[in-house]
Specification:
It comes from Maribacter flavus. One of its GO terms (molecular function) is oxidoreductase activity. This is FAD-dependent oxidoreductase. Keywords: Oxidoreductase. This protein has 2 domains: 159 residues, 3-Layer(bba) Sandwich (FAD/NAD(P)-binding domain); 121 residues, 2-Layer Sandwich (D-Amino Acid Oxidase, Chain A, domain 2). The mean pLDDT is 95. The protein has 350 residues and is of the alpha+beta class. The chain starts with a strand and ends in a 19-residue tail after the last helix. The protein is built from 7 helices and 20 strands.
Length: 350
C-alpha cells in the first residue's frame, strides 16, 4: 500500500509530490497530460499585478517560499530551471508614470517597484514614456521542470500514463483501491479537468483559456521581460513568449487564429522590429470565482482531497498550498480559510 495516489502532474501535482517526498511519503502518480495549462504557462512568478499596481495575493510570503522550493528541486534535478527575471512595465502616458511612483512609495510595494524611471534605450521597442522596473520576479521553465520531474524523480512503477477512470475507484473505510493500487489517500490535481470529476465537480471552477505566441527575432535583443497590453518574455536563442489573453468562454486547448491576430496586434504596439511566429500554444487555466485556490478534503470522503484553482499564479502559489494540504491531511492542521473548499460547502447539495 502507498500513502497517496496523485491524479495529475501539472504544477499542483508536482508541488504536492515534491512535498510528499520531503516528508518520506510513498505515492503513485496517474496522469494523461490532457490539461496543458501548466506546460504552456509562462512560468513568471510576479509579486505585483501590473495592470493596477496591486500586490499579488500573499506575495510577501509566497514569492520567497516558492523560490526556495524550486531551487531545491533544481539542485536535485541538476538542471537550470529557475531564472531571475526583471520585468519592465511599459508606460503609455505621464499619468501612468505618476501612478507607478505613487505605488512605489507604499510600504507593501516599495521592495518590488523601483522608484526610478528607466528610459528606453532599445531602438526596437516602442516606449516613449519609458519603463518602471519590477524587482524580485523569477521565471520557472515550466515545461522543462515538469518533464524533468517525471523522467528523473518518478520511478517507472510510480507513474501511470493514463486517463483516470473514476468508475474504477473503490473507497473503503481505511483506504481506497484503484486498478490494483491500494492507497491511504488520493489527491486530485487535475486543473480544469476537475469539471469531469464526480466527487469535486460541484466546486465553482470556471476556467479561463490562455494563449501564447512564440516569436523569433534576431533584431529585438531584449533580456528583460516586458509588460504592456501583453507580456513579451525572453526564452533565449532569440525567441520570445508573447501573451497571454484571458478567454472565459472558450474551454478547449486548441490555439485559435482569432487570438493569434489579437496578440500580434498588441505586439505591434510594443516592438518596432521584424519577427517570425514560430509557435502557438494554448491551455485552460483553472480559475475560481473568488480568485483563490481550491484545497481540502471532500466533506463525505475523508481520504479524497483536492489541490486546484491556481489561475495564472500557479508557479508562486503551488508549493505553499501543497504544504497546507499535506499538513491538513497528516497533522490535522486547519487550512487557511481563503483556500479551504469548505467555503463552498453549500454548493454540494445543490
Amino acid at each position: 500500500m502507498v500513502d497517496y495516489i496523485v491524479v495529475g502532474l501539472g504544477l499542483a501535482g508536482a508541488a504536492f509530490c515534491g512535498t510528499l517526498r520531503r516528508n518520506q511519503k510513498s505515492f503513485h502518480v496517474i496522469s494523461d497530460q490532457s490539461q496543458t495549462s501548466s506546460k504552456v504557462a509562462a512560468g513568471l512568478s510576479n509579486p505585483v499585478i501590473l495592470k493596477r499596481f496591486n500586490l499579488a495575493w500573499k506575495a510577501h510570503n509566497l514569492l520567497p517560499f516558492s523560490k526556495r522550493f524550486y531551487e531545491e528541486l533544481e539542485n536535485e534535478l541538476a538542471e537550470q530551471l529557475l531564472l531571475d527575471q526583471p520585468i519592465l512595465r511599459k508606460f503609455s502616458s505621464i499619468e501612468e508614470q505618476n501612478l507607478w511612483f505613487e505605488a512605489s512609495d507604499k510600504e507593501h510595494l516599495h521592495q518590488f517597484l523601483s522608484s526610478q524611471l528607466l528610459r528606453n534605450t532599445n531602438p526596437d521597442l516602442n516606449a516613449p514614456y519609458g519603463f518602471g522596473v519590477l524587482k524580485g520576479a523569477y521565471r520557472l521553465r515550466t515545461q522543462e521542470f515538469l518533464t524533468a520531474y517525471q523522467k528523473k524523480i518518478l520511478a517507472p512503477d510510480q507513474f501511470s500514463a493514463e486517463t483516470f477512470d473514476y468508475s474504477e475507484l473503490q473507497i473503503r473505510m481505511d483506504h481506497l483501491e484503484y486498478k490494483g493500487i491500494r492507497a491511504k489517500n488520493l489527491v486530485f490535481a487535475e486543473g480544469f479537468g476537475v469539471k469531469k470529476n464526480p466527487f469535486f465537480n460541484y466546486l465553482p471552477v470556471q476556467g479561463s483559456k490562455g494563449e501564447y505566441l512564440i516569436i523569433e527575432s534576431r533584431e529585438l535583443s531584449e533580456k528583460n521581460a516586458l509588460k504592456s497590453s501583453v507580456f513579451v518574455i525572453p526564452l533565449g536563442n532569440n525567441r520570445y513568449l508573447v501573451g497571454a489573453n484571458y478567454n472565459p468562454v472558450d474551454k478547449d486547448n486548441r490555439p485559435s487564429e482569432a487570438t493569434k491576430i489579437e496578440l500580434l496586434k498588441k505586439l505591434e504596439g510594443i516592438v518596432n522590429c521584424s519577427y517570425e511566429v514560430v509557435g502557438h500554444v494554448a491551455g485552460v487555466r483553472p480559475t475560481v470565482k473568488d480568485r483563490r485556490p481550491l484545497v481540502g478534503t471532500h466533506p463525505n470522503h475523508k481520504n479524497l482531497h483536492i489541490i486546484n484553482g491556481f489561475g495564472s499564479h500557479g508557479v508562486m502559489i503551488a508549493p505553499w498550498v501543497a504544504l497546507e494540504l499535506f499538513n491538513s491531511i497528516e497533522k490535522g492542521t486547519s487550512l487557511d480559510p481563503e483556500v479551504d473548499i469548505h467555503r463552498f460547502l453549500s454548493l454540494l447539495s445543490n
